[in-house]
Structures are given as structure tokens and as C-alpha cells.
Automatic annotation (TrEMBL):
GO molecular function: peptidoglycan lytic transglycosylase activity
Alphabetical GO biological process terms: peptidoglycan metabolic process
Lineage: Bacteria, Pseudomonadati, Thermodesulfobacteriota, Desulfobaccia, Desulfobaccales
GO (cellular component) term, any one: membrane
Protein name: Lytic transglycosylase domain-containing protein
Length: 200
């Protein structure tokens, strides 16, 4: 199953050191076509969220993931900048790692349609894996399922990520719909609330 392949890659950290940029990728022509003249889908400092509404609505409907959650992940991951590339090599709006993008069938991770489709599908897989628990799915999206399931304390980056997404998409418990605004501690999975966890 594709999910097991993706989760296996994440668990073993494969692909994390690969560095890609739109200029050096195989999809350079596509990136240039969409962004060179006018940056209608975003700019280096972030993009216009409304430019992606249709793509987000379609992916949300197709994969039964709340639109608000997809938008929150995109905002935190890339600030709606489709050209975003992390130091670890994550690419595009939803910051897909090269191996994950490949496993999801994403040909060009800098293409907003492909990136949103792949990222939303991956979120759906993680929501299913963690019984609909949004904070757990988000922690796995950021840190990797293998790391999350290792029993180690959440790193600061992941705690900050959960807080940032939680401010934009409030959830308190496992749910596919919006819930009351959480406290920072409620975004940290209970088994990871240690002395290093988010303080309220």
C-alpha cells in the first residue's frame, strides 16, 4: 500500500537531505510559466490565499479533509508561497518532501494543483492512521509518523507547528470538523506532554 511506503520513508528519514529549488528541478518550465510573469499564484514573500480556493475546495471534497485545515497547513508550511523550499528539501505550498511527493504521484511539487492534491491526500492518510485525531495527524505531517510513534518528546519545531496551525484551525479532540479553540497544551498529544511540552 502506498501509505506504508510513504510512512516507511518518513520513519527512516529518507529524502530529508535532498535540496531542490524550482530553478533546478525537472519542472522548471512549469514553474517559470506560472510564476515568472506576474506571480499570479504567489510571490517569494507569500501568496494570495484566495488564488487557491478552488483547488483547496476540490481536494477537501475529494479527500474529506476540512478546507480550513488545508488552508491552515498551507499558511504555516509556506505562507501560500508555491515556490517555498525548506532547508530539508520540502517543496511547494504544503511542503512535500521529495520521496513523499514521488510516492503520492506528485510530478511537480511546485505546481499548486499537484501539491495541494498530494498534501491533502497525505493528510487524509494520516487522519485515518490516527483515528481522525487532528493534532496527532499534524504532528506526524510535520515530524514524521516514525518519529511521532517512537515515544520521544515532541521537538520544539513540532510543538510550535501545532500551536501555529491550531491558531488558524482550532481543534480540541479527534474530529473531522472544527471544534472550540484549543489551548496550546490540548494541541500536544497527551502522551507527549512532558516537561519539554508546550506550556500553557
Amino acid at each position: 500500500m502506498m501509505l506504508h511506503s510513504i510512512l516507511g520513508r518518513l520513519a527512516h528519514g529518507q529524502g530529508r537531505s535532498i535540496s531542490h529549488s524550482p530553478e533546478g528541478s525537472s519542472c522548471r518550465g512549469e514553474v517559470e510559466r506560472h510564476f515568472k510573469a506576474g506571480a499570479s499564484w504567489g510571490s517569494r514573500s507569500g501568496g494570495d490565499a484566495s488564488a487557491y480556493d478552488t483547488l483547496i475546495k476540490e481536494a477537501a471534497r475529494r479527500h474529506q479533509v476540512p478546507e480550513g485545515l488545508i488552508k491552515a497547513v498551507i499558511k504555516v508550511e509556506s505562507d501560500f508561497n508555491p515556490r517555498a523550499t525548506s532547508h530539508a528539501g520540502a517543496m511547494g505550498l504544503m511542503q512535500l518532501m521529495p520521496g513523499t511527493a514521488r510516492d503520492l504521484g506528485v510530478r511537480c511539487a511546485y505546481n499548486p494543483a499537484e501539491n495541494i492534491e498530494g498534501g491533502t491526500r497525505f493528510l487524509r492518510d494520516l487522519l485515518d492512521r490516527y483515528g481522525g485525531n487532528v493534532p496527532m495527524a499534524l504532528a506526524a505531517y510535520n515530524w514524521g509518523p516514525g518519529n511521532l510513534e517512537s515515544g520521544r518528546s515532541l521537538p520544539r519545531e513540532t510543538r510550535n507547528y501545532l500551536e501555529a496551525v491550531g491558531r488558524l484551525y482550532p481543534v480540541r479532540h479527534a474530529s473531522r470538523t472544527a471544534a472550540p479553540k484549543p489551548t496550546p497544551a490540548s494541541l500536544t498529544p497527551r502522551r507527549f506532554q512532558t516537561e519539554n511540552a508546550v506550556q500553557t
